Structure formats: C-alpha cells, structure tokens
Amino acid sequence: MQEKRNMHFNGEYFHSIDSNNRVIMPAKIKDALNGQGFTIYHRPNEKCLRLYITSEWDDMVYKIAYADDGVDRTDLQWHFSVNSKKYDLDAQGRFVIPPKFIEAAGLKKEIVTIGIGPRAEIWDKQAYEEKLREADKIVNVVLPF
User: Fold this and answer.
1) Are 13 and 30 in contact (CB under 8 A)?
2) Are 24 and 93 in contact (CB under 8 A)?
3) Which residue in 33, 40, 34, 32 sits closest to 57, CA to CA?
4) Cβ contact 26:15 at 8 Å
C-alpha cells in the first residue's frame, strides 16, 4: 500500500452529482486513493469541499485538536466532527455527498474535482471557473519565474 506521505492529487476532472447526491470518483483521484478511505470536510465560508485520505485527515485533526498545550479544544474537536464525513467508495466507485455539504459548498449538478497536492477539492463548476479567473490574476503577481 502506498504511504500517505507520498499521496499527491493533481489535475481537474469535470463530472456531475446525480439525483441521489451520488458522485462517481474521477478515475485518477480513485487511483491516487489506492483503495484507502477518504474524508470530506467543509471548511466554513469556503465554496468547495476538501477531500483528504482518511489517515492523513485523522493525523491532522489529532495534531490540531488534541495538542498538549493546555488549551481547551472542545469546540475545535466539535467543529471537525460535524463538518466532516468518512467514506469508502461503493462497488461502482461512488459516494454520496450529504445535503448539508452540497448546500454549504453551493454545489449544483455540474461539479469539478481538482487535485491540490495532499488533498482534492470538489467545486461547483461555475464557482470553480470564477476561482480560476481570480487565481490567474494572483499567479501572475506571485510566481518568481
């Protein structure tokens, strides 16, 4: 099995949500998962859903929410619990996105899954196209080459 530190998502994949809120995982993302489960997380005020390999998600949440620094992290633990869902793909390579996540991220029928290194993101197609226009402006300013 591939080690999580070597996991890398990239590319963009246009697909859709069916009438039962099911999504077929794009083949390249499915291949990168290498049979591992994944966690979908909605970060407040983001127009997308984040997808992490579950082992990576669990490590991140543990480090943040259970840090031994004397700070009460009960609210943070609660936040991560209610804003994430763990998945395994069904036999057809699908998973169901809960309605609260669809609404929170503003997803409609046409979606785009993009790979961003250690995570993937699921965007509404129109919101993604708007984000691309914004990102093009930023990249032109930031890149040193």
Assistant:
1) no
2) yes
3) 40
4) yes
Per-residue model confidence as pLDDT tens digits over 34-64: 899 999 999 999 999 999 999 999 999 998 8
d(CA 80, CA 64): 10
CATH of 4-140, one of 3.40.1550.20, 3.10.180.10, 3.90.700.10, 3.40.630.10: 3.40.1550.20
Rounded to two decimals, the pTM is 0.86
- Separation of alpha carbons 124 and 14, rounded Å: 10
- Which pair of structure tokens corresponds to residue 101? 């996540």
Confidence grade of residue 23 (pLDDT, cut at 50, 70, 90)? very high
Strands, E, within the chain: which ranges?
A: 12-16, 22-24, 38-41, 48-53, 84-87, 94-96, 110-116, 119-124
